[in-house]
Specification:
The complex is a heterodimer.
Chain A lengths: L5 E12 L6 E12 L3 E5 L6 H8 L7 E10 L2 E2 L5 H7 L4 E4 L3 H4 L6 H11 L5 H14 L16 H12 L6 E5 L7 H18 L2 E6 L2 H4 L5 E6 L2 E7 H6 L4 H7 L40 H5 L5 E3 L2 E3 L2 H4 L7 H8 L18 E2 L5 E2 L1
Parallel strand pairs in A: 3-8, 3-9, 6-7, 7-8
Antiparallel strand pairs in A: 1-2, 1-4, 4-5, 9-10, 10-12, 11-12, 13-14
Helix pairs in contact in A: 5-6, 6-7
Chain B lengths: L2 E13 L8 E13 L3 E5 L6 H8 L7 E6 L2 E2 L6 H10 L2 E2 L13 H12 L8 H11 L16 H14 L4 E5 L7 H18 L2 E6 L2 H7 L2 E6 L2 E7 H6 L4 H9 L37 H5 L5 E4 L2 E3 L2 H4 L10
Parallel strand pairs in B: 3-8, 3-9, 6-7, 7-8
Antiparallel strand pairs in B: 1-2, 1-4, 4-5, 9-10, 10-12, 11-12
Helix pairs in contact in B: 3-4, 3-5, 4-5
Chain lengths: ~375, ~325
């Protein structure tokens, strides 16, 4: 049997938060695949189910969250229903997770090296020399001097803490690393350096990455495919560059127009009015319709499915039947090529004057 | 433009280490700038560059180690009485970064506003306080029914609007906003930035907008001050600084801003800002700077005006050379 191209297949995944009053469905029927060595970006506002989805994929859900339906097939094994013991053989070795806040995820009273040792010993019986060698190796991979293995988390800068988290995730050279907003606590320069580092490591070691963020602009140059989530569902899924060039879903368009740019004209932006719905009170029909500038009556009644449009998947009724007006004006204003502002254009204009007698001009 | 606040050779050091330690951290070193009326000034820089220390000195949380701050031409060190102190903090209130931690969770949100009105505007009769609270809530774009809510009932964006409403209730002249949008979702940020512009344009308030997000600074601010390791690297009208950045650090900062519409810049700086403990003279950016010359290790560069209103602290730029350290 040829080696499977897909490393992860998530199918029909739903997660409920079981609450005394009523259950809340935080992730609703999500299906996607990740290929070997691929970089999948997941974006959406807070409360759209991004982190819950990650936890479900890594089988880290804790009460009151509960997997309601679906399968997570990782390298041919369905992770759903495995015992903790079976899972721990896979976790960290084949699949590791980098959490959002390194300061909270690292143990503050243990040195970085001791935490590496813990992880290595949990998955085998390495000798002292092997531990030291491997720890130093992964630290060098992420560009930190191995002397910092002796450091405690508080002695490192935010960027170094995040990079040592990534080093830790790479201890066993896994096939898939899941990252939950690893850069959100960093400033732009450190953020940028970390993204370049992740991409470089990925190209060298060939692992796949699932990268969750709420800042779309951050991953535009790094992710291969992009998944936009809204209210627990996938709204749009497709090639990253294509989505940035022509976002199909009104929500994706809104996200793209929500952040200012340092290039092009200074245009007033509106952001997306309103806020994501309370998952306990999901709107009828399309979940985005109360905030959607293009919503029509049937959007409030018919629940949209994920429709294939131009090779991407998009959850929008009006996009499916082609009645969605293209918000071209706003989109082009962002790229600085607004045709509306052109009032007059001079094209290869040339006018010569011939000096005539007595300083006047003759033809 | 009338000058509202002027910081003059402001310096703030912190002693670090144990009791016997002689080491000092130079959080802010010899920083001078001014803020005009009806002006949004963005203060940008990496974490640890001294941005928040400046805000705290301006808010009188810290006393400056040396230097002076003048507000409406009166020095802050002359404020002695509680009455003058209250008056100043009502004219220069602060809005904090974390909207989840800066509002008291056990009271309705009107509590904070009513207290502010009672404390800072004693001339306002008690029965008019609720009307005034409703007025400032309307200005910041919150419904008056929100006054009765508890903080946990509000979203992050709404809480940050409450923060601005509290500041506005004092009838301020200058709001010190310390990373007011960095904890919020990208889709909510624009609303807050628009609110800041509205406060400037309609209420005539100046804002010191502390941020590390240059793109959002460009969106609202009139002027930009770029800080590096406790000193000002570059300052000037924001469009001028962004289109013709003269300091290598500003160029690095701009190259790091993610922009999906521009091609990926290939800058791979992995350096970090230095911890400024007992610094020797010299430019503090020289370890990361590809253009550093001998003079940079010996003499601390001072700010010099290279273009109208646009000051740069860089020996290379001041020598008249074309600075291209990091292409954006």
């Amino acid at each position: 049997m040829p080696e499977a191209h897909e490393i992860l297949e998530v199918s029909g995944l739903s997660v409920d938060y079981v609450l005394p009053q009523h259950d809340v469905r935080a992730v609703d029927d999500v299906s996607f695949t990740v290929d070997r060595g691929e970089f999948l970006g997941i974006v959406g506002e807070s409360g759209c189910g991004k982190s819950t989805l990650l936890f479900a994929v890594a089988q880290l859900l804790a009460s009151p969250a509960q997997l309601a339906a679906g399968t997570v097939t990782f390298k041919g094994t369905n992770l759903v229903g495995l015992t903790d013991k079976q899972l721990s053989a896979i976790r960290w070795c084949d699949l590791s997770v980098v959490m959002q806040s390194a300061m909270n995820a690292l143990n503050p009273v243990k040195s970085i090296g001791a935490q590496f040792k813990d992880a290595l010993q949990a998955h085998g019986r390495p000798s002292k020399q092997e531990i030291a060698a491997r720890s130093a190796e992964v630290m060098r991979m992420v560009g930190i001097d191995p002397v910092h293995l002796k450091s405690y988390p508080h002695q490192l800068s935010g960027g170094m803490r995040q990079r040592s988290m990534i080093a830790m995730a790479m201890l066993f050279t896994p096939d898939l690393i899941i990252m939950d907003e690893p850069t959100s606590a960093l400033d732009v320069v450190a953020q940028r350096a970390l993204m370049m580092q992740i991409k470089e490591l990925q190209q060298t070691y060939g692992f796949a990455v699932i990268f969750v963020t709420h800042d779309m602009s951050l991953i535009s140059h790094f992710s291969d495919r992009l998944m936009v989530m809204y209210a627990g569902q996938i709204d749009e899924l497709g090639d990253t560059r294509t989505i940035f060039d022509r976002p199909l879903h009104p929500y994706t368009q809104g996200l793209l127009e929500a952040f200012p740019s340092i290039h092009g004209p200074r245009v007033p932006l509106k952001g997306i009015p309103g806020k994501p719905p309370d998952l306990a009170m999901i709107p009828t029909g399309c979940r985005f319709h109360p905030r959607c500038p293009h919503a029509v009556e049937r959007c409030t009644a018919i629940v949209p499915d994920l429709y294939p449009v131009d090779g991407d998947l998009v959850r929008c009724l009006r996009r499916k039947d082609g009645t969605l007006p293209d918000d071209l004006g706003a989109h082009l204003a962002r790229t600085g090529r607004d045709p509306m502002t052109e009032l007059l254009r001079a094209d290869h204009l040339t006018r010569h004057f011939k000096p005539g007698q007595d300083g006047g001009v003759t033809r | 433009m009338t000058e509202l606040l002027r910081a003059d050779h402001l310096t703030r050091h912190f002693k670090i280490g144990g009791m016997m330690s002689r080491r000092t951290l130079h959080a802010v070193d010899d920083v001078s700038f001014s803020i005009g009326e009806r002006e949004i000034v963005a203060l940008a820089g990496e974490s640890g560059s001294g941005k928040s220390t400046i805000a705290r000195v301006l808010a009188r949380v810290y006393k400056p180690t040396s230097g002076e701050v003048y507000f409406e031409d009166k020095p802050l060190s002359a404020i002695r009485s509680r009455r003058d102190g209250l008056r100043y903090s009502s004219l220069v209130p602060m809005v904090f970064q974390d909207p989840f931690a800066s509002i008291n969770p056990v009271f309705r949100v009107q509590h904070g506003i009513l207290r502010i009105l009672k404390l800072h505007r004693p001339d306002l009769p008690a029965r008019q306080r609720l009307d005034e609270a409703a007025r400032v809530f309307t200005v910041v774009g919150l419904g008056t029914d929100m006054l009765q809510r508890f903080p946990y009932e509000l979203s992050g964006g709404q809480r940050q609007r409450v923060g601005f409403a509290q500041a506005l209730a004092m009838r301020p002249k200058l709001i010190l906003a310390d990373e007011p949008v960095s904890m919020l979702d990208v889709s909510i940020r624009i609303g807050l930035l628009n609110l800041m512009a509205k406060l400037r344009d309609e209420e005539g308030v100046s804002i010191l907008y502390i941020t590390h997000d240059i793109a959002s600074a460009r969106y609202v601010a009139d002027r930009l001050i770029v800080m590096y390791a406790g000193q000002i690297a570059e300052s000037g009208p924001i469009e001028d600084v962004l289109t013709t950045p003269q300091h290598p650090y500003t160029q690095l900062l701009l190259s790091a801003v993610p922009d999906p519409m521009a091609p990926l810049s290939q800058v791979t700086d992995r350096g970090e800002p230095p911890k400024v403990v007992d610094p020797a003279p010299g430019c503090r950016f020289r370890w990361r700077c590809p253009l550093a010359i001998e003079e940079c290790t010996a003499v601390t560069p001072a700010l010099a005006e290279l273009r109208p209103g646009h000051e740069v602290a860089c020996h290379v730029a001041q020598s008249g050379a074309d600075v291209k350290a990091f292409a954006s």
